[in-house]
Structure formats: structure tokens, C-alpha cells
Amino acid sequence: MVRVGVVGAGGIAAEHFKHIAANEQAEFVAVCDIVLQNAEAASARYGAAAYTDVTAMLDRERLDALFVCVPPFAHGDIEEQAARRGVHLLVEKPLGLDLEEVRRKAAVIREAGILAGSGYCLRYLESVQRAKRYLADKEIAMVRAFRFGGLPPTPWFADMAKSGGQLVEQTTHNLDLMLYLAGGVRRISADMALLLHKDVAGMTIPDVTSVNVVFDSGAIGHLDTAVIPQPDGRSSLEVLGRNFRLTIEGTSLTIAEPGTTTTWRGPGDFYRAQDDAFLQAVQTGDAGLILAPYEEALRTLEVTLAANASAASGIPVLLEREDAGVAAAPIPDAG
Length: 335
Ligand SMILES: NC(=O)c1ccc[n+]([C@@H]2O[C@H](COP(=O)([O-])OP(=O)(O)OC[C@H]3O[C@@H](n4cnc5c(N)ncnc54)[C@H](O)[C@@H]3O)[C@@H](O)[C@H]2O)c1
Known about the structure:
Blueprint: E1 2-7, H1 11-22, E2 26-32, H2 36-46, E3 49-51, H3 54-60, E4 65-68, H4 78-84, E5 88-91, H5 99-112, E6 116-118, H6 126-135, E7 140-149, H7 160-163, H8 166-169, H9 172-182, E8 185-193, E9 208-215, E10 220-227, E11 234-241, E12 244-249, E13 252-257, E14 260-265, H10 270-284, H11 294-313, E15 317-318, E16 329-330
């Protein structure tokens, strides 16, 4: 049995609790939240021991795996503490807000040799996996995506210093899919503004965002996202190439080729698929089951933070590969 702990017992943790508890290979043994009643509520429902201090939980429980479900600003050294004890990690997106800090975490994780997945759960959709297989031998020319949705109820979301804004915190899922399907990005530019929620007290994140990217392959990409007052959340991703257009809208995948258009609909339980895959990876040691490794989530964070930097500076940002020895930097001449 995989002995599992969870840190952060809020909204997304409730989703993980269900799947950990239902997984026959796993035992949900401990839960930690700085708010005691949140940990106790999970404890009462699932029988896991309740903690308010993650170090105490890691010291007392012999965990095999830890789900990290704290908000973006609150990661502290949770990952390092788990990694140094050999505890495998599933870390919710975004991995943090400070790129250097997350890079240091990634190095500790690498050194510890543990398995580390991230919460980019949409990769586990069958529609996405089918799209990935279809695109494997295709030359992509363009990717366009959007996501519009209401203001999440979590109080920290509207605070730029705590969430990083909608692109870093939420629409990171959509950008992650663009990277997953079309590869790395070498240039990014973004415009962001707070226009629709100017009257919301304490709101410091932009609520309208437009992003342009150039992929390493030379393909061009575009992503729009907005926090909208209307309750009509929508998102879509489209990939264009010579003789094909592929569209993913949630569980549905449409592929249009000259003369034929095929739509396929798959199951939607991506959270369960993600958690089951991670737990099986821990049990078997098969890292290949994890479709969104921590290292790839780090790349997604780099790109979303670069978009924020571009929006702040008004100029595009070049993303150099780490192995090229150059960090992300604004392009002096926007050209
Ligand atoms: N993968 C997804 O689809 C998905 C969906 C929702 C949220 N998330 C991500 O999950 C994370 C949490 O989001 P949420 O909506 O559950 O937030 P939330 O505010 O509902 O829950 C966070 C919980 O963490 C606790 N907490 C904060 N700091 C802590 C610490 N240092 N130690 C222990 N507990 C701590 C809080 O008390 C709270 O109970 C965010 O990064 C968010 O982006 C992912």
C-alpha cells in the first residue's frame, strides 16, 4: 500500500481526497492544514490523522507520497522537506511564484531521485492524449486557445502577490496544453489589464489578458484569457497545420482534414486518472505513468511568468534554454 499524506486541505484537496480514498493501492494516512478545522474535517471524513504542521506530519508518519495542495504563495520548503525524506510528490500547479525558488526545489527533487508530478490534470484527458498521438508526426503552424471564466472564490486569487494572476494561476492549464502539444516557446509577449473588475476591493490581478508566442519549432501561438462576471465559462484550443485543424473543447476532440471532419468524445474524470497514474507510478516506480512531471511544470511556470514580465515591461521576452546558459530576459529592441 502507498501511504499518502496531503498538505493543504482546501478546494482542490477535496478532489484528491476522494481519489486517494477510492484507490485500492493507497492508504490516506495523514492530512495537514494550517487551519486546524480544515485538517480535522478531512480527518473526520477519511480517517487520516490531522496535523497543522507539515514537518511534524512528515516526521511522525512514514509517508510514501505527499500531495501538495497549498496556494501558490504558500509552498515554503514543503517540497524540499518531503524530497529529503524520500517522499514522492504530486504538486498542484502553479509550482510557486518565484522562479529561482522553484528551480532550487526542482534541483533538490532531482538529487533526491524521487518521483514528482504536477497538477496539470488536463494532460490526462483522453481528448488530449488522442490529440498528442495525432500530432506526433505533424508539422504545426499555429496554436490558438482561450479560457474565460468567473472569479474563483478563494480570497487569495485576486491578489497578484499571492496568485501571480489568472495566467499563472488558472489559465496556466491552457498554456501548459499548448506547450505539451506544440513544444517549447522561445519568445513571448503579453498585454494584460484590469478592466472588468475595477470596482472589486483588493483586486490587483489583470482580468483581461492576450498572449502571443513563438514556439521553438517556429510555429506561432496565441492565447486569450479573461475573468468575466458572466457565468459562461468557456475554453478551447485549436491546432492548425497543412491539411488539418484539430480542436479540443474539454472532453471533445475534433479533427478536420480535407473532405472529413471527425469528432470524438471521451471520459472527463481527469483528476481521477491523474491521481491513479501517480499512485501507480509510486507503487511500481514507473515514472512514465506521470504525464505532467515537475520539470515540465517548471517550464510552464517559466513561460507564464515571462508573460507577466512582458506585460509589465511592454516588450517581448526571449526564453533561452537553461542549457544554453542564459536566463529569460526581455528583448531590448522589440523590433
Ligand atoms: N489542478 C486543478 O485543476 C486545480 C484546481 C483548483 C486549484 N488548484 C491549485 O491548488 C492550489 C490550492 O488551491 P485551492 O483552490 O485548493 O485553494 P484553497 O484556498 O481552497 O485551499 C488551500 C488550503 O491550503 C491551506 N494552507 C495554506 N498554506 C498552508 C501551509 N503552509 N501548510 C498547510 N496548509 C496550508 C489553507 O488553509 C487552505 O485550506 C492552487 O495552487 C491552485 O491553483 C488546482
